[in-house]
User: What shape does this take?
Amino acid sequence: LDAAHARLAAAALAAFADGDPGGVEILTAARDAREPAARRAVLVALAQAHRNGDRPEAVLSAADALLAEAPASHEGFAAKAWALRRLGRGADLSRAAEAMLARLPDDAEVLALASSSRLLLGDRDGAARGFRRLVETGRATPVVYNDGAWLELFRGGASAEALAWARRAVEGAPGDHAALNTLAAVYAELGRPAEARDVFLRSLDDGRPLEGSDWFVAGRIAEGFALPEAARAAYARVQPDLVDGAEDPSGAHVLARRRLALLGGKGAPASSAGSPPRGEGRSGKR
Assistant: This one.
């Protein structure tokens, strides 16, 4: 490894870690490296560096360059999907996803990423179609089953299918807090508060402090046991979940607000810039 390659490798590591401006400058200068493999590696690092610096236009530029060289690159599509979501370009995201799926039919990673991105853009129906497509192809992971079941709570309420998906998520990831929380929420939505309570208590075994989704489920269980005041108090504790500084359209606070409105209660969750940010996709968020 000569000095130039060592310097480039160090720049890539720094850029990956925190978007170091010096590292970004070195990577940018190396975008036109002669060796295709080196050029693609630089573009991957550059896209991540710009993502760390929250520069979606620059991420999109690097992602497009990477996809021009490697049209089936998962890294390239992941970067492009993130950038398009941050830019609010849902139609372009859909076109990019279909272009990738034309090259990689029913690719689980592409479908899952596209669905999660659509969900964060507020396109619940588009996200639901993607999750269902994954289930139908037999490639759904516990994360997909969980996200799909949770999403149904926003789309007309729970169903027998949502319950089956939530159970599959728990079976595939026993003890996972997010999966157990979703299963408890589905049980509560279906008017089965006793079962919801049992699963909810299991979800608290990890000893973590209660989060927004926990308070939402506690409220739904209280409603199931005809305790409206307790339900209102629980819903009022659900603070908005933030993703990249904006409210997550699939956060529990959306559901809590709906329930408070139906109960005719006051104290709906208010926007809070202090709420902790969440990751991408429900399982990463909680």
About this structure: The first strand starts at residue 242 and ends at 243. The chain has 16 helices and two strands. The CA atoms of residues 94 and 114 lie 8 Å apart.
